Amino acid sequence: MQDNRNYGGHLLRAAKSARGFMLLCSLNVIALLFVLASMANASKRDLQGHISKMVTSRPHACASCHEQALEYPVLYANRTVMYTHGGLPIHGNVLELGVYTGLNGLDMYEALSPELLVLVDPWVDTDDPRFKATNQEKVAQRFEGKRARIIKGTEDDVLRHYGPSFFSCVYIDTSHTYDDTMSQLIKLEDRVKDDGFICGHDFGHPVKRNYGVVGAVVEFMVSRKWLLTHVTVDGPYRSFCMTRKRIKNVIGVDV
Ligand SMILES: C[S@@+](CC[C@H](N)C(=O)[O-])C[C@H]1O[C@@H](n2cnc3c(N)ncnc32)[C@H](O)[C@@H]1O
């Protein structure tokens, strides 16, 4: 009887400690779930923070966007969107080399609100009616009363009129051949501020019609240490922008 009672007591104690053990296990599982949930929440918050940082680092036409280094090329639907949302410097001196009738110049003027927009084109009268001198008159009408200077000439006239580090943004849209593009990039490089941008058109058509913008820009970037910051995705007419390298690449290596 005594033994049986003892046996019952053991059983009771065992059952109690088993309950305790189960309780402990449940508490551990709950704690683990809590930790996992807060980790998931934290990484969700990190992600949200990261996304909102990315979004706010590209505010509409911000004043000193180079501070928020554009670390790798960002795609834009077209150049108008690139001007309005690409964080290119506002209130700076802007150059368009290759103006034609001035429509793109006007887009840049409205989005970047430059202190001065310099529009340079030889407007030579060729067999191609699109490039007749009358285009210069159209440009003159379009920019009447605006902070713009129209120069009938080429990149060499830019060099004559403006000194080093004058432009915050240069947009090149001329013959699109490799030789012309490379020569214009090299000539204009020092006219661009340290934190300025060189942009341009037809960053497509690598071979078509003897276009060589892609080749020239890529070679220039690699040899002169510039970094591609913007690309538009509007077919073969893509625009691009680049700036001098002052940042580390994605994995933190100085490039
Ligand atoms: C494709 S159009 C420019 C179009 C204009 N950027 C636009 O998007 O509305 C090319 C222009 O480049 C001009 N051009 C050609 N060689 C040039 C040079 N070396 N410097 C400046 N303009 C040049 C031509 O006269 C022509 O008007």
Brief characterization of the structure:
With 255 residues, the protein is α/β, with parallel strands linked by helices.
Strand % is: 15-25%
Averaged pLDDT, please? Answer: 79
Query: How many individual β-strands?
Result: 8
Helix content: 40-55%
Q: Secondary-structure element sequence?
A: HEHEHEHEHEHEHEE
Supply the CATH class of the largest domain. Alpha Beta
Bound small molecules, by name, code or SMILES, are: S-adenosylmethionine
- CATH names the topology of the largest domain as Rossmann fold
How many domains in all?
A: 2
Kindly report the name of the CATH homologous superfamily of the largest domain.
Vaccinia Virus protein VP39
Mind describing the biggest β-sheet? 8 strands, mixed
Structural class: alpha/beta
Total DSSP helices: 7
- Strand arrangement across the biggest beta sheet: 1-7-8-6-5-2-3-4
The CATH architecture of the largest domain can be named as 3-Layer(aba) Sandwich
Oligomer: single chain
Uncertain residue ranges: 42-70
Rg computed from alpha carbons, rounded to a whole number of angstroms = 31 Å
Distance between the termini: 87 Å
Globular, elongated, flat, extended or rod-shaped: what is the shape?
A: elongated
